[in-house]
Amino acid sequence: MxxxxxxxxxxxxxxxxxxxxxxxxTDPRPPSPPPPPPLMSPDKANLTEKxxxxxxxxxxxxxxxLNGQQVKLSKFKGxxxxxxxxxxxxxxxxxxxxxxxxFRDRTVTLNAGDFLVVPRGVEHRxxxxxxxxxVLFEPAGTVNTGNVRDARTIENPARL
Length: 160
Ligand code: NI
Fold this sequence. Notes:
This protein has a domain at about 45-140: Jelly Rolls (Sandwich), CATH 2.60.120. Helices cover about 10% and strands about 35% of the residues. The chain contains two helices and seven strands. Strands 1, 2, 3, 4, 5, 6 and 7 form a seven-stranded antiparallel β-sheet that branches. Strand 4 and strand 5 form a beta hairpin. It is globular and about 80 Å long.
């Protein structure tokens, strides 16, 4: 490269940009195409109908999945076991009935329409005097008994 050529390049680079103060995008590529349509059109579901489709207690069913999270339905009756989830926050929303969420330092009663998020790492035990229908929202793969494995552990819940 000649000295004259180099001087020209340096001169061009040092010209102040007065117009906008920012660099315009001059990418010659066409804009990216729109994303493909979803494979299935959205369809509605009904909580009452979904809850009517199973009878077991403490056996969550997956009814929806989005953004790495799952919506599960579970029927509680009686006391569950003390456990915690090391990495997952867990939301409980009561659809029908009521139950108590026991923590080591307090107890919270949830009635229909109430919801609660149990933060990761917090020990909890749901207890239901009568059958209660609960919607759970938690990361996919969250195990119902958390850090405990016993007869009620369900590693792979069924889908409804
Ligand atoms: Ni839990």
